[in-house]
TrEMBL record:
Residues of the HIT domain: 43-152
Annotated positions binding substrate: 69, 141
InterPro entries named among the record's database cross-references: AP-4-A_phosphorylase, FHIT, HIT-like, HIT-like_sf
Active-site residues annotated for this sequence: 139 (tele-amp-histidine intermediate)
Organism: Rhodoluna lacicola
Name of the protein in question: Diadenosine tetraphosphate (Ap4A) hydrolase and other HIT family hydrolase
Motif (Histidine triad motif): 137-141
Keywords in alphabetical order: Hydrolase, Nucleotide-binding
Protein origin, superkingdom: Bacteria
Entry GO MF terms: hydrolase activity; nucleotide binding
Amino acid sequence: MNPENIQSSAEMPGVPNAFQHLWTPHRLVYIQHGQQPADEDCPFCLAVDKTDEEALIVFRGKHSYVLLNLFPYNSGHMLVCPYRHIATYDQANTEEVAEMAELTQQAMRVLRKISGAHGFNIGMNQGEVAGAGIAGHLHQHIVPRWRNDANFFPIIAETKALPRLLGEVRRDVAAAWSEA
Ligand SMILES: [Zn+2]
């Protein structure tokens, strides 16, 4: 795929090596769907009151929770969010930092177990200028990687947008969470 031919940011996951350019694919998807949401419409705050299935939540901790990214870069792309609506990492308290770290480690174990991930991209975009899709609410990305996975992105991109597939991934991750 020639990047210059891309009509929609939804095609971005099909671009080999796009991920090496920080996290901008996610940002582009959100920009396409509109501007940053108002704080009262924050999707990471609203998700907590929904069912796990509706919100793609895989685990609820004491201070933070884990959900699948609605716009995954790769199958199994997860986000760890504190429950509190805080924008940046330095605003997180000791308990939140500790639990986000624990949940990130657990997410890695789960992804390795259920999908045989060979590697991971883990990171937090701080602020809209740094590429945060939802800049008002801190979230850590955990993206599983497989050797040569870039070669499969055009194929994955055709199927991974299906809600049914995301639901299946959520179920598998949630089921493996307590065992990994
Ligand atoms: Zn929020």
